[in-house]
Design a protein that fits this description.
This protein has 129 residues and is mainly alpha-helical. It contains 5 helices and 4 strands.
């Protein structure tokens, strides 16, 4: 996984835009937010590649588990943290007490790698059905 720190956004703009222009699909967790943010940052046509969202795949495959739960029914079990705990061997890593910006970027890059692993598992499960 790769994370682009905010201060590198402008120098990396053309590279990110080229990736968005030439990719066939993007794997996301809650891609609606990601593509909204890309549009806010001025990237073109980002939402045309919103095809593989693990949060939506999980909800479609396991609607009873992905539904509302917890006190007051406000929490849903569709977070990346939850999916990683079920579908990967990744030890818990979602601690947001960052000692440095580098730790936050490392978490973001790891999220990207874990999201792709979850996508692979959900796709294999879907194909097996």
């Amino acid at each position: 996984g790769v994370a682009v720190p905010d201060y590198c956004r402008e120098p990396m703009r053309s590279i990110v835009q080229e990736l968005l222009d030439n990719v066939k699909g993007i794997v996301t967790q809650n891609g609606q937010y990601d593509f909204w943010r890309l549009a806010e940052y001025g990237f073109r046509n980002a939402d045309t590649h919103w095809t593989n969202d693990v949060m939506l795949m999980w909800h479609a495959q396991e609607p009873l588990i992905a539904g509302k739960g917890g006190k007051g029914g406000r929490r849903t079990e569709k977070s990346l943290r939850f999916l990683a705990s079920l579908l990967t061997w990744e030890p818990f890593y979602k601690d947001y007490n960052f000692a440095s910006p580098e730790e936050e970027w490392t978490l973001n890059a790891k999220d990207a790698r874990v999201t792709l692993e979850i996508f692979d598992k959900l796709t294999m499960e879907l194909c097996a059905r």
